[in-house]
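Reminder to self: tokens first, then the designed residues, so the page reads top to bottom the way the pipeline ran.
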């Protein structure tokens, strides 16, 4: 079995200007250093707004921080008359390692469907970015279709039709648990992540499924992260609001110390 390095992702959403971004990244890096965090045992990635990317990239490079950088979205197009869109080529030039695709807020507020998510995944692959493909069900879908039907369907749609399937990450975020204070139980999260992996294996083979990191997201905090990551089926977490607090997010990244307690 492939050893999957835990993936701790902080999605800042539409928060923090570039000066605030500097302060947060410095505090986060210093906190992790003070606690002797070993990045080889848990990868830590921040996803700032587009306007902060250059600033954060420069800071990470200058200070030799071991944090990784991701973007919150990208265009399906590489260039052209697409005002306001951001090309994957631009993100690659900024040394972004990852990009969120298909977050529930993009699906809900910008009407992004499975076809567009698939096209954006292809764009990420073209530019050497690792897509973090977000999947999840609403409360209504949970009640009518069950917990795994929608995320499995969204996962397979995003992965369909690519000539070469490069490394990717799946983030399972039940929409009903994002920013609501409601949280799926550790058992519920593990079950859905396992169903997603089984579906990837059935469609793309055991090697791809075994190598793919599958995250849980939705009201994750330092106090509850250990429960989710105590399962072999969950390889990390996608954190929203708690990632804006350096100490809280540092505590989440150091989940292995919580497990040892």
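Designed residues (261 positions):
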């Amino acid at each position: 079995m492939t050893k999957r390095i835990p993936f701790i992702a902080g999605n800042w959403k539409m928060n923090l200007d570039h000066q605030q971004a500097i302060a947060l990244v410095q505090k986060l890096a210093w906190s992790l250093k003070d606690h002797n965090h070993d990045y080889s045992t848990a990868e830590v990635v921040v996803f700032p707004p587009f306007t902060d990317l250059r600033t954060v990239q420069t800071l990470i490079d200058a200070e030799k921080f071991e944090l990784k950088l991701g973007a919150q979205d990208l265009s399906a197009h590489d260039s052209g008359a697409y005002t306001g869109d951001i090309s994957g080529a631009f993100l690659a030039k900024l040394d972004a390692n990852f990009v969120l695709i298909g977050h529930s807020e993009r699906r809900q507020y910008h009407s992004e469907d499975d076809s567009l998510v698939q096209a954006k995944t292809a764009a990420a692959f073209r530019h050497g970015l690792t897509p973090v493909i977000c999947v999840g069900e609403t409360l209504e879908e949970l009640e009518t279709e069950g917990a795994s039907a929608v995320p499995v369907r969204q996962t397979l749609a995003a992965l369909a039709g690519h000539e070469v399937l490069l490394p990717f990450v799946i983030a399972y975020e039940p929409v009903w648990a994002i920013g609501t204070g409601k949280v799926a139980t550790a058992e519920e999260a593990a079950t859905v992540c396992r169903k997603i992996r089984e579906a990837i294996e059935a469609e793309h083979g055991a090697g791809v499924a075994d190598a793919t990191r599958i995250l849980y997201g939705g009201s994750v905090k330092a106090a509850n992260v250990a429960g989710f990551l105590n399962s072999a089926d969950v390889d990390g977490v996608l954190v929203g609001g708690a990632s804006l607090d350096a100490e809280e997010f540092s505590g989440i990244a150091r989940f292995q110390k919580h497990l040892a307690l």
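The radius of gyration is 17 Å.
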